[in-house]
Write a structure and sequence with these properties.
Flavocytochrome C3, Chain A, domain 1, FAD/NAD(P)-binding domain, alpha+beta, 19 strands, single chain, five-stranded antiparallel β-sheet, 35% helix, binds flavin-adenine dinucleotide, 14 helices
């Protein structure tokens, strides 16, 4: 197995190659120690970037801007369709515009704590530092972040933090950030540094002499299987939450790319480290193929409660305040409704297990805006969350300005993924992994509004340096897709596709997926021990 001969394996232990020195100086020093590729030589290197969501789009645009020859792949028909577009709530940054005590160190501290002290601290510190650059970069691109009356960028609070550091563009933060990255990417496409191959699904990784040297793709329109060679490969292919079948992820999100890379020797880390998001629209029946997130930002103003009495089926407005259990405020007074996601999710499951859940099947809790509407008025709430209320009404037929929303936890985000070192390189030399596809340094981004930050830090700021360092240490060579390793991988891919397409079974693929997903949900999810 290739991973077992990885330079990251030292005496049987994985070495993340964390630079020495005080934590606040590691990245700066490392940037100085990294080798550079001279501008004139960059075009001699080909980098394959798989994925054009926030992480891949940012990486491809930045590497193209530097002058590398970049080939970017996506199974979508346009980079704008990446699942990143679904992100609603916001992106964290330690700008301290509110003067409420935020700092790089506090973002670092909150993130390490939110990651249950499992995170790789050097990486988290770097992430907190880079959060400042991300906002500047996105504003320069024209991302329309919300602003407050004085013109400064506005922020709101998110779970697990007592400062207000989440930058947002109404309930469409991911979409706006993705448009920024997409414009940067298209600019490079126009300049000829990046070629964009859409509707091309990566089905395997090609490893030659222990190094990642290319990929095999299948054209989703024609079915043609093709090889692509490069000096390095970046996987920015998103998360694998859909293994649970029902999740807030887009239906198209799948784990094929990282799974194939794993089969070729890249180590996989923390596969069970899954984020269950507390505020999703409850499951309503067998017909569903995905679940809908109601942004965590709603917990800024919505109060979570269930009836105190078991089996209380009265409509919410008939239950007096004295007979309601605002269980998050009761149990976690310092964070209240903004308790971290895992805590809020487990608490919701507990009250439903006690048979105090609401709505059909009793697997729901209320998220109630009545107090906020009384205090601020409906127009203020509409201004902040209008599109989310509208989406809720379209799905449930209920007007959440009049009756409380009903929410329940759902699989949302996978912290597990391919293991990477400080440079974001996997255990296969030359294979880099960015965004949700990597293991995010042991859940360094476990809190809300951190995934966007991590994906963009990886793509805009980390990979352009660390990948350059790798390329500077390997010479560009003339290997192309005519190498026998590519031919052999193509043959394997074609055989696999043929085998699957010729099964001739009587059940749909989805029915197997649903059954397997249910098993995972029952035995390896919210509050279960496996
Ligand atoms: C509903 C929802 C709301 C969210 N809200 C927030 C939020 O407010 N704040 C926050 O920080 N995070 C949020 N997240 C998480 C965040 O949006 C994602 O973690 C992040 O956008 C993932 O970005 P990515 O670039 O890693 O992957 P994606 O955006 O999933 O992009 C993956 C790319 O890889 C391509 N791809 C995948 N596999 C292959 C293959 N085999 N071959 C070719 N191409 C492939 C796809 O076409 C796509 O271009 C939210 C997530 C969800 C589900």
């Amino acid at each position: 197995m290739i991973g077992s001969t990885s330079p990251n394996l030292v005496d049987g232990r994985l070495d993340a190659k964390i630079p020495p020195g005080p934590i606040e100086q590691k990245w700066e020093r490392h940037r100085f120690d990294m080798k550079l590729v001279s501008p004139a030589n960059r075009r001699r290197y080909t980098v394959l970037v798989v994925g054009s969501g926030l992480a891949g789009g940012a990486a491809a645009a930045s590497l193209g801007e530097l002058g590398y020859n970049v080939k970017c792949f996506s199974y979508h028909d346009s980079p704008r369709r990446a699942h990143s577009i679904a992100a609603q709530g916001g992106i964290n940054a330690a700008k301290n515009y509110r003067n409420d005590g935020d700092s790089v160190f506090r973002l670092f501290y909150d993130t390490v704590k939110g990651g249950d002290f499992r995170a790789r601290e050097a990486n988290v510190y770097r992430l907190a530092e880079l959060s400042l650059n991300i906002i500047d970069q996105c504003v320069a691109q024209g991302v329309p972040f919300a602003r407050e009356y004085g013109g400064l960028l506005d922020t709101r609070s998110f779970g697990g933090a007592q400062v207000s550091r989440t930058f947002y563009a109404r309930g469409q933060t991911g979409q706006q950030l993705l448009l920024g990255a997409y414009q940067a990417l298209e600019r490079q496409v126009g300049l000829g540094t990046v070629t964009m191959d859409t509707r091309a699904e990566m089905l395997d990784l090609v490893v030659v002499d222990g190094r990642a040297r290319g990929i095999v793709t299948r054209d989703l329109v024609t079915g043609a299987v093709e090889s692509h060679a490069g000096d390095a490969v970046v996987l920015a292919t998103g998360g694998y939450g859909n293994v649970f079948y029902l999740s807030t992820n887009a239906k198209a999100s799948n784990a094929t790319a990282i799974w194939r890379a794993h089969k070729r020797g890249a180590f996989f880390a923390n596969p069970c480290f899954t984020q269950i998001h507390p505020t999703c629209i409850p499951v309503s029946g067998e017909h569903q193929s995905k679940l809908t997130l109601m942004s965590e930002s709603l917990r800024n103003d919505g109060r979570v409660w269930v009836p105190k009495k078991v089996g209380d089926t009265r409509p919410p407005d008939r239950i007096p305040v004295s007979e309601r259990d605002y269980y998050l405020e009761r149990k976690y007074p310092s964070y209240g409704n903004l308790a971290p996601r895992d805590i809020a999710s487990r608490a919701a499951k507990e009250v439903c297990d006690e048979k105090r859940g609401v709505g059909p099947g009793g697997r729901g809790v209320y998220l109630d805006f009545a107090d906020a509407i009384e205090r601020f008025g409906e127009p203020v709430i509409r201004e902040k969350y209008g599109n989310l209320f509208e989406m809720y009404e379209r799905i449930t037929g209920e007007n959440a300005y009049r009756v409380p929303m009903r929410i329940y936890p759902a699989v949302h985000y996978t912290m597990g993924g391919l293991w990477v070192d400080y440079d974001l390189m996997s255990t296969i030399p030359g294979l880099f992994v960015a965004g949700e596809a990597n293991f995010s340094d042991h859940g360094a981004n476990r809190l809300g509004a951190s995934a966007l930050m991590q994906g963009l830090a990886d793509g805009y700021f980390i990979l352009p340096g660390t990948l350059g360092d790798y390329l500077a240490r390997v010479r560009p060579d003339t290997m192309d897709a005519g190498h026998p390793a590519f031919r052999a991988t193509e043959v394997e891919v074609s055989a696999r596709v043929r085998r699957v397409l010729s099964v001739g079974g009587k059940r749909t693929v989805d029915s197997f997926h649903r059954e397997l997903g249910q098993l995972l949900w029952d035995y390896c999810s919210n509050g279960t021990r496996s």
